[in-house]
Write a structure and sequence with these properties.
The complex is a heterodimer of chains A (119) and B (115).
Chain A lengths: L4 E3 L2 E4 L5 E6 L6 E8 L3 E9 L2 E4 L8 E7 L2 E6 L8 E8 L13 E2 L3 E5 L1
Parallel strand pairs in A: 2-11
Antiparallel strand pairs in A: 1-3, 3-8, 4-5, 4-9, 5-6, 7-8, 9-10, 9-11
Chain B lengths: L3 E4 L2 E5 L4 E7 L7 E6 L6 E6 L5 E4 L2 E6 L4 E6 L8 E7 L11 E2 L3 E6 L1
Parallel strand pairs in B: 2-11
Antiparallel strand pairs in B: 1-3, 3-8, 4-5, 4-9, 6-7, 7-8, 9-10, 9-11
Classes of the chains: A mainly beta (119), B mainly beta (115).
């Protein structure tokens, strides 16, 4: 299995530009998560989907951020317009089910991340 | 009540020594406590996890100790090796309902094992 695939791996853009990050989860996984990691705030959950439906977007910082999952094998995180404070590493992760091992949380598999720099 | 506090922020250990990283949580509904390992330029990967029905779980050189009454859990790395140098992230979540799989992460500990 190729694991979670993210693109691009690095993105440098100027303030005000639109940024789109892409994610392909592991085949068969029904949960998809978007995280942001910074030195100051650590790893923060932005939004997660179950069976392509957004379940919890309470971590999305503001209306400039949006996420979609049009099908089980693809998701996007869009920032429009981007700001310097959005600079971070963005991770996508996927998991299967709600606890095949006896109830609860299953392992989340993370992609390699997209390092975003907004100038 | 959703916060997970992790310490220390960074840790330097000599090869062969014991590395200890601590986490504390507030939400008593949490019932799943994983540790993730993250190498530079990579995404986090699950290292070991525990549920509150046991006080300790060991996998090779890695052990989680769990203290339910104190709402604390810790990662112990025995015989630490330079290859263990990475960032370690603790996390917590509660099972069931719409919050299933929603992990709350600590801020991470950067471990450096010196040869």
């Amino acid at each position: 299995d190729a694991g979670v695939i993210q693109s691009p791996r690095h993105e440098v853009t100027e303030m005000g530009q639109e940024v789109t990050l892409r994610c392909k989860p592991i085949s068969g996984h029904d949960y998809l998560f978007w995280y942001r990691q910074t030195m100051m705030r650590g790893l923060e959950l932005l939004i997660y989907f179950n069976n392509n439906v957004p379940i919890d977007d309470s971590g999305m910082p503001e209306d400039r951020f949006s996420a979609k999952m049009p099908n089980a094998s693809f998701s996007t995180l869009k920032i429009q317009p981007s700001e310097p404070r959005d600079s971070a590493v963005y991770f996508c992760a996927s998991s299967f089910g709600t606890g095949r091992g006896g109830g609860g949380t299953d392992t989340q598999y993370f992609g390699p991340g997209t390092r975003l720099t907004v100038l | 009540q959703q916060q997970v506090k992790q310490s220390p922020q960074s840790l330097i250990v000599q090869k062969g020594g014991i590395s200890i990283i601590n986490c504390a949580y507030e939400n008593t509904a949490f019932d799943y406590f994983p540790w993730y390992q993250q190498f530079p330029g990579k995404g986090p990967a699950l290292l070991i996890a525990i549920r509150p029905d046991v006080s300790e779980k060991k996998e090779g050189r890695f052990t989680i100790s769990f203290n339910k009454s104190a709402k604390q859990f810790s990662l112990h790395i025995m015989d630490s090796q330079p290859g263990d140098s990475a960032t370690y992230l603790c996390a917590a979540s509660k099972s069931g309902g719409g919050a299933t799989n929603k992990l709350i992460f600590g801020t991470g500990t950067l471990l450096a094992v010196q040869p």
